[in-house]
Design a protein that fits this description.
The structure is a single chain. The chain has about 60 residues and is mainly beta. The protein has no helices and three strands. The protein has one domain (about 10-55): Rubrerythrin, domain 2, CATH 2.20.28. The protein has strands at about 10, 15-20, 55. A three-stranded antiparallel beta sheet has the order 2-1-3, with no helix packed on it. A hairpin with a 5-residue loop joins strand 1 (about 10) and strand 2. The radius of gyration is 11 Å and the shape is globular. The two termini are about 20 Å apart. The relative contact order is 0.32. The model has no long low-confidence stretch (mean pLDDT about 95).
């Protein structure tokens, strides 16, 4: 189990936030899923932007 704190990632296109601690259960992504573990073809659930459109948020 990773001891690295969970991070939040923000979509540059719409501002949506992916929180690793929460995941995205409505989209089938369980809580605790690291951003890096999301499939490469994952899209922003809010606007459909590519995964590459997300940047890590500062703590």
């Amino acid at each position: 189990m990773s001891t690295t704190p969970y991070r939040k990632w923000q979509c540059l296109a719409c501002g949506d936030i992916y929180d690793e601690a929460l995941g995205s259960p409505p989209d089938g992504i369980p809580a605790g899923t690291r951003f890096e573990a999301l499939p490469d073809d994952w899209l922003c659930p809010n606007c459909g932007a590519l995964k590459a459109s997300f940047v890590p948020m500062d703590d």
